[in-house]
Amino acid sequence: MYLKNVWYVACTPDEIDGKPLGRKICGESIVFYRSGDGTVAALEDFCPHRGAPLSLGFVRDGTLVCGYHGLEMGCEGKTTGMPGQRVGGFPQIRRYPAVERYGFIWVWPGDAAQAEPNEIHRLPWAEDPAWAHGGGLYHIKCDYRLMIDNLMDLTHETYVHANSIGQKEIDDAPPKTVNKGDQVVTSRFMENITAPPFWKMALRGNGLADDVPVDRWQICTFTPPSHVMIEVGVAHAGHGGYIAPADRKASSIVVDFITPETETSIWYFWGMARNFRPEDEELTAKIQEGQGKIFAEDLEMLERQQRNLDAWPDRNLLKLNIDAGGVLSRKVIDRLLAAERTSSVGQPIIPIARASEAS
Ligand code: FES
Ligand SMILES: [Fe+2]
Question: Closest-lying ligand to the alpha carbon of 64?
Fold first, then answer.
């Protein structure tokens, strides 16, 4: 159960560099490629001739060519040519709205008539030279909501990421969770603690001592349909923590775009944006490597959790205070799913009434 009349991250520009990319998103098999004018095209991954996946073909002069018998497909989904054939009567295939923005390619898997590019999640740091970003992509066999749960409850760091970002003080600092319209924010603050290994590395990367006590924060923000941005950082203790001056802290934004592939699998675009030493590519690579290892640790846990849930679908799960972020995010998703269903039969969408609080 996922929203379809929304924008998801589909891929990154390097994935369609000179070749088509086939990717299933929200159950839709889609082929992405760069068309003749340089814009991104997204079409049904289905050749109208004999049903071959168009993504197995190639791009010639901006035209997608089927790899089976050479049918040429236009970026609107209409066949433009085929060796030895008249193509005028060939059926059109589906086109999906796609936009390249902020270093990602976004797709709207639902009703194309409702697609509005202004609704793409805003990433101001992606257009600001004072910031650098590095990231990657994992395919994970789990319901996208399990990943939202994971990112909105960072108590798991103590156990899953014991050697990098985990520390027992996380358990001792209860999170606070609030609704802000359609967003959910879970925050946790820790004071006067030792920085864990990943953050020692980041402190050194910013030219700061790594052997002094620090204040640490984690502010996780869920935005529908499935984006989680996490403001994280450490500051030398006693300088204001989250609001400490830039020369006393190492902070960044953990960037998580979770794109459902099917009901039980996701494309997980992870990354980190930082505004210290943005020109230092070596540091970007180091952070990327560290973060990639950390997120790989979640992978097995989530896939095995999904298998357990598949095996026992009727078992009730507990909802503890640490689960509030995921629970409230699911409520937002459920409300928007109901609205999407209603709007598809011509009824108005009901906006959220007011912010509420839970902890
Ligand atoms: S299946 Fe594509 S050209 Fe024949
Ligand atoms: Fe994790």
Answer: 1
pTM of the model: 0.93
Strand spans (E) along 212-281: 214-223, 227-236, 249-262, 265-274
Neighbouring C-beta atoms of residue 159, cutoff 10 Å: 12
Using an 8 Å Cβ cutoff, are 11 and 31 in contact? Answer: no
Identify the pLDDT of residue 345: 65
Which segment of 82-86, 114-118, 315-319 scores lowest on mean pLDDT?
315-319
The H or E element that residue 282 is part of is: helix 281-311
- Taking the centre of ligand 1 as the mean of its atom positions, its distance from the CA of residue 90, in whole angstroms, is 12
Ligand 2 centre from 159 Cα, in Å?
9
124-357: CATH class: alpha beta
Residue 180 CA to residue 114 CA, distance in Å, equals 25
CB of 186 within 8 A of CB of 220?
Answer: yes
Ligand nearest to the CA of 66: 1
Instruction: Reply yes or no on whether the pLDDT at 74 is more than 60.
Output: yes
* Distance in Å, CA 82 to ligand 1 centroid: 9
Q: How many helices (H) and strands (E) are present in the chain, helices listed first?
A: 6, 18
Residue pointed to by tokens 């920085």:
195
Query: Between 2.102.10.10, 3.40.50.300, 3.40.980.10, 3.40.50.720, what CATH number should domain 8-117 receive?
Result: 2.102.10.10
Residues flanking ligand 1, CB < 6 Å? 47, 49-50, 52, 66, 68-71
Rounded distance from Cα 75 to ligand 1 centre (Å): 16
**Tokens representing 228?**
């989680």
Domain ranges (residues) in the chain: 8-117, 124-357
Q: What share of the chain is helix, strand, coil (3-state, %, to 5)?
A: 30, 30, 40
Q: Which residue's CA is the closest to the ligand 1 atom numbered 4?
A: 69
